[in-house]
Write a structure and sequence with these properties.
With 254 residues, the chain is of the alpha/beta class. It contains nine helices and eight strands.
């Protein structure tokens, strides 16, 4: 499928393996605001990191992504129908959806066209949730190394749309009356290989490799790995967290 901002098809398997997983509480908090629990549409689903939570609280889930490679990397589930589809062209029937979720993907969308699609497919009372998380928090002295690579080395290679993530989606147009949600975080216990695998999935890393080759990426990995081994130990599993922001609104009145 052409014509979309495709930063992740080439790293679909790494994305499936190394991206953090959302807490079930987030899905539970969203479903508590929903009028009905029949059909959820997870948009820009990637390899299903958020989609996987929805069958516990919805009868049926349709998860779409413009990248066929990402969808192919998702773990199958009998209640989830994965589709390769653009955000603004879901193929869902009019007035059929009770919850629309977008996890770490809305900043790549043509938002006016997507919001028009939301209005078309929304059932009465349908909820829309745009979910995003910023960078992970690491202990010193790992965090300064991580931040230097993230900001100083990769800074010129982050796509412009990424700024919306840094700003917690506060700058994204959101033409819906906001609803409150409890504070949210992502949490994981990761070893060195998982942290470095996560870094490899970033869109800016693709830009760095294309522009310069892998010299500065490998230099970061060597320095970060050396500091990890000296301060945490070879087999350390560090507790990590990512702050999560969720913008929630009602697409159609109930």
């Amino acid at each position: 499928m052409s014509g979309f901002k495709d930063h992740f098809s080439g790293v679909a398997q790494g994305y499936a393996t190394y991206r953090p997983r959302y807490r079930p509480q987030l899905a539970a908090d969203l479903v508590a605001l929903c009028a009905q629990h029949r059909l959820a549409w997870d948009v820009g689903c990637g390899s299903g990191q958020f989609s996987a939570l929805l069958p516990a609280v919805f009868e049926r889930v349709v998860a779409t992504d413009a990248s066929a490679e990402q969808v192919a990397a998702a773990i199958p589930h009998p209640q989830i129908e994965y589709r390769a589809a653009r955000a603004e062209a879901s193929g869902l029937p009019d007035g059929s959806v009770d919850l629309i979720t977008v996890a770490q993907a809305a900043h790549w969308f043509d938002l006016p066209a997507f919001y028009a699609e939301c209005a078309r497919v929304a059932a009465p009372g349908c909820l829309l949730a745009l979910i995003t998380y910023a960078h992970m928090r690491l202990p010193d002295p790992l965090m300064p190394l991580f931040w230097h690579f993230y900001e100083d080395v990769l800074g010129p290679f982050w796509p412009p749309d990424r700024r919306h993530v840094e700003q917690g989606y506060a700058t994204l147009p959101f033409p819906f009356e906001p609803l409150a949600l409890p504070p949210q975080t992502l949490e994981a216990a990761w070893g060195l290989d998982q942290v470095l695998g996560y870094v490899d999935t970033w869109s800016a890393v693709r830009g760095l490799l294309k522009a310069e080759g892998d010299g500065r990426l490998q230099a970061f990995k060597v320095a970060f790995g050396k500091t990890w081994l000296e301060t945490q130990g070879a087999g350390a599993q560090l507790p990590l967290d990512w702050p999560v922001t969720v913008r929630v609104g009602r697409v159609r009145p109930g």
